[in-house]
Design goal:
two-stranded antiparallel ribbon, alpha/beta
Length: about 290
């Protein structure tokens, strides 16, 4: 059976479990300077609300570590959001309150926005005042991937940044160039096979090429230095044999579902994914039923 791409939250959670330190160094270098990235302890939130009748949403990723400048334990909470939610800041403050109640330590909250409408951002503060006096104030850091230029990260040799290239700001005409840059970067990264497989899975879940684009990519790779060209070509062939190409249809369907969930017009989805319009309509009904 061909491999299927995991859901959005699972992809991000696994990426952060493998490459949290790389993620922080690539996107929050100033904050990272005072965080000990060698004392990381992932916090499982799977069983948080098992005793409640109706379990609320759980945080995507939480890790415990320490500050370098002082002997203080902190939590870092990272939440990935694939669609616009005007009440997202309230959900983040709710997670903050629950984490604080449970662990009683400072918390650094971070949100990763991966949807394709960078002009729509939720509020980043929650402030409660009574009679002009503030009794609660909350804010969180943000990373809006579509606002970033993928070209600024292709020389970083950072596996987290490599995977997230697929969600950065590029035009339809730049998709082939972005995929080529990703493959060239991947060769430079010395990753365990399991980690490399997830980086490829993550990238291919969000940036898919049609047959014409795949053909163009192959031609451009063949024009690289012979040694690099052969290595990339062998790498691509090995993944196709392993099953990635067989799973391409499932990946396209998952992409279409994510776009439907983000409110994208079905005619545009059909054009981008090259799925029949009737198939996109069927997927839309499935998504609405799941909701």
């Amino acid at each position: 059976m061909p491999p299927q791409h995991p859901p959005h939250d699972q992809l991000f959670r696994q990426l952060l479990e493998y490459f949290f330190a790389d993620f922080m160094q690539a996107f929050f270098p100033d904050i990272t300077e005072n965080i000990d990235l060698h004392a990381l302890e992932p916090i499982s939130t799977d069983a948080w609300f098992s005793g409640e009748q109706k379990a609320p949403q759980r945080p995507d990723f939480v890790v415990k570590t320490r500050l370098k400048s002082e002997d203080v334990v902190i939590l870092v909470h990272v939440e990935s959001q694939s669609s616009y939610d005007p009440k997202f800041h309230q959900r983040m403050s709710g997670y903050y309150a629950r984490l604080l109640d449970r662990y009683q330590c400072p918390i650094l909250p971070i949100a990763i926005f991966s949807y394709r409408t960078p002009d729509k951002e939720p509020e980043t503060e929650v402030i409660h005042t009574i009679n002009g006096k503030t009794y609660f104030a909350f804010t969180y850091e943000t990373l809006f991937l579509k606002k970033l230029s993928w070209r600024n990260f292709i020389e970083t040799k950072n596996p987290a940044a490599a995977a997230l290239l697929a969600l950065m700001g590029y035009t339809e005409e730049e998709k082939v160039a972005c995929k080529k840059a990703f493959l060239r970067l991947l060769l430079k990264l010395k990753l365990k096979e399991e980690h490399r497989d997830h980086v490829v899975k993550f990238f291919d879940s969000y940036l898919t090429l049609n047959e014409k684009e795949e053909s163009t990519l192959r031609k451009e790779i063949n024009q690289l230095h012979p040694e690099e060209s052969v290595m990339i070509d062998d790498f691509m062939n090995s993944y196709e044999q392993w099953g990635w190409k067989k799973g391409r249809e499932e990946g396209i369907i998952e992409t279409a579902k994510r776009m439907i969930g983000e409110g994208v017009e079905i005619t545009f989805i059909a054009k981008v994914t090259q799925l029949p319009l009737e198939k996109v309509r069927e997927l839309k009904k499935e998504v609405e039923t799941e909701d």
